[in-house]
Amino acid sequence: MEEPSPPNSLQNPPGDTVTTVTQVKRPHEVTLAEVKRPQEVVMMNIKDSLKFGVLIGLLEVRQVRNKEVVDAVLHLLVGGEFDMELNFVIQDPENIRHMLELLDHCPQGLQAEIWSVFIAILRKSTRNLQACTQISLIEHLLNRLPQAPQIVADLLVELLGVLASYSITVRQLKLLFAAMKAVG
Fold it and tell me: Torsions phi, psi of 156, nearest 5?
C-alpha cells in the first residue's frame, strides 16, 4: 500500500518521466570542494576576487608551498600562464587590490617573494605601472609601511621609488613626505 504524501509535496503524475539534472563539469574545471593546491584555484570558473579568497583559505591552513602561491598570484594578475618574457602585463588592476589582501595573510618570506617579482614586472611594462596608478597603489603601500617587517619594508620602499618615478600626485607626495618625516 502506498503511503499518503504530505500536503504540498511535489509528485510527478502517473506516467510522467522523472528528469534528473546533473551538473556537467567542463574539462580542466575544478569545484571548490576539490581544491587542494593553488594551481587548481586558477582553473576554477569563478571571479578572480573569489579565487584570491580561496588562496587565502589555503594559506590559512598552511597546506601550500611559497612557489605555488607566487605562481598562482602571478597567473591571476596577468590573466593566464605567467611568463617574464611573453605574458607579464597585468590584465585587471583590481587584482592588485586582491593581492594586497592576500599578502596580509602571508608569512613575511612569502610577502618578500611576491613583492620582488611584482617589482620586476612593474619595471618591465608601463601598462603595469599604469594599472598601479589606477588603484592608487602608492597610498596603499604608504599605509602598509609602518607595520611591515624590515625585509618587506625595504621592498615596499623600492616599489614606492618605481611607482613614484612613473607617476605621483601631489597628495601622494605629501603622504610620502609625511611618512619620511615620521620615520626620522
Answer: -65, -40
pLDDT at 25: 47
SS3 (DSSP) at 83: strand
Radius of gyration from C-alpha coordinates of the chain: 23
Q: Residue for cell digits 620615520? A: 183
**Which pTM does this prediction carry?**
0.77
List, for residues 96-152, the tens digit of each pLDDT value: 999 999 999 999 999 999 999 999 999 999 999 999 999 999 999 999 999 999 999
Residue that the C-alpha cell 590584465 belongs to? 91
Strand-pairing partners, residue 43, are none
**Residues ≥6 apart with Cβ < 8 Å to 94:** 48, 49, 135
Q: Would you put residue 61 in left (φ > 0), alpha (ψ -120 to 50) or beta?
A: alpha
